[in-house]
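Data card: per-record layout.
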Amino acid sequence: MDSITTPDDSTDTLTPARIVAALDRHIVGQDDAKRAVAVAMRNRWRRRRLPDEVAREVVPRNIVMLGPTGVGKTEIARRLATLLRAPFIKVEATKFTEVGYVGRDVESMIRDLLEVAIRMTRQEQAEAVRERAERAAKDRLVSILLGEDSKEDRNEGSAEPADTPPADAPHEKVRARLREKLDAGLFDDQEVEITVREKANIPAMGLGPEQNDPTMGGIGSMLESMLPSRTHRRKVPTQRALELLIEEETEPLIDQERAIEAAIERTELDGIVFIDEIDKVATSNDRGGDVSRQGVQRDLLPIVEGSNVTTRHGVVRTDGILFIAAGAFHQAAISDLMPELQGRFPIRVELSGLGPDDFRRILVEPEANLVMQQKMLLGTEGIEVEVSDDAIDAMAELAAAANDRMENIGARRLMTVIERVFEEVSFDAAERVARGEERLAVDARFVRERVEPLLSDEDLGRFVL
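The structure for this 465-residue chain is written out next.
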């Protein structure tokens, strides 16, 4: 698509400072990485406001993140995509080396990204027409409750009722009263029988996953479109019936071709591809298997550089997609990547390792932090949990100590510590409430009694996630 579309006005106020502030609500520290991705996103917003002939020359400044596992590399990219409603996909570079010199088709990452964009676009279009679909679905449900499932005999794709009798007709008054009762939830405990349509299920026919590959002409999709959908009767609760009918009424209201066109454009302009373990395909003269790894780099290069990828929905240009590569780079350096590939990731950000102070903040600062999650989980059983400040300190210190003695897995170690602290309480929560033990005070002693024994050599395995 040659033209640059009008940007979404909802992103106008997302300045780099505000993007960083939004990321701070979920991720502790790593300010350099947050600033880098925030600027990259704002540059996209700026690009859309340039004249077309200039905008086509502006390409994303791809980013490579260096840092040990568990410090937030993936989370930063994922949260960023969620914030901006951008299509996002994560792939591991090692997946492309599993079979022969090159495993999965490297271009498959773009096809998968497009599928994500199509789902997002269809969901948004479904929300836009939900009111119409819900109205039509309730009309159908009223007909079913009255024993008049007339919709089944009408042509598919019509979300509008047939000839509507005058509103003052006796029959319409009955329908109106039934509709009021339905809205009031008086039929929630009742079951109804509805006709459900299902798409034809096409077997692989020996073609394997390639049956939908664009080079195979999308055989599976073509056969699905040729065969009629199957129908069967189901008896379901009224609320579930309404959900199924809304889904069925929504489908014909969505312009599928327009949704795919919008999704392709969204992929090209807003897509984010996160390539993890990029260091695993770096090459050096003192290690074997360089042919395989270098083959992956060579296949990645044209996609990151900008090329046309053929999908079963159309051609996707990759020169506007933001690529974020990440790796620990313990046994390799960025300089071990091909010079051409290095040049396609001009922004390099190093993420720092995490210590006790970082763990302490991670436990309590982010929204839906681990401590709050555990309190709410036990709260569903009727147990009120109080966690003291010294308990937070103890959990942070023990997680850091475990990372020092074993493999450093970053913040993921906190999940093991939290689970160990509350393991016994989680197991017998219902029995505690039955005994009247509805309050639980967690302090540093409580934490250390349950976690410190695992730091002994024979129990280190319990810390592995």
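Known properties of this structure: The mean pLDDT is 79. Residues 108-128 form the longest helix (21 residues).

See the next section for split statistics.
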